[in-house]
Fold this protein.
Amino acid sequence: MLILNMIYNFHTHSDFSDGKNSIIEIVQYAATKGVNIVGFSDHSPVPFESDWNMPQNQINEYLKTINQCAADFPQLTLFSGIEADFIPGFQDFSSFSDFDYIIGSVHYALTDNFPEGFDSSPKGMKDLIDKYYQNDIKKFITYYYNSICQMCSECEFDIVGHLDLVKKFNTVAPMFDETEKWYYNLIMETLTIIKEKNLIIEINTGGISRNLMKEPYPSFKYLKEANMLNIPVTISSDAHTAENLIAHRGTGLKAAAEAGYKAEYIPGIKKFQPIT
Ligand SMILES: [Zn+2]
Ligand SMILES: [Zn+2]
């Protein structure tokens, strides 16, 4: 398949998890906007109550709907991916091996009872750190990067989702300084494992679409470090609406080029496309 000049996105949420639009609406949007490839990556089922993960009993319907849309829209190439939630002690990824690709992400923090999502709002994140991490942001962030490292070491997957998600509210409600040595060390340790395991990282523009930040995940400083380590990147919108399907892709490409990247990895096709 010729991939040059193709328009695509591989991090896409539908209403099977917490996206606003149905798969059909997203595919219709892609068809009218000249998008060539869509990879769906709804949030994986988790073994406890969640209002934003796909229920286990919906997986077959999810796959069936994507296949049906692929048949109905032959001009598009569709992939069935999943954004798998890694939670220490609760989840492994072995049940997701049939998906075309897996994005591995950490959105949950450990609490007394069952895991809680930490990135719903600045207040929610602050309250959780106060309550379960003794108001110690360093302790919480160490938990986060240790979980990413554990996921990389123990799970089979393709792409590390939004590497530095913990900075999500740092522009609108500053919580820590990303340039401090302890933080730098945590990220570098994480990037080293990512490299060892031959994983891909995302340049994820979802935080820009949500008006939370001006630059993608990961921060430019760390994107440059990733490039120095020859860790491949893929650019994604983390779309939760059809209209954000390819939002801020130009910003992602610019960040990649400025960080020194010459090529972008295309997950479903498992090839590289030059960044010009
Ligand atoms: Zn995510
Ligand atoms: Zn996502």
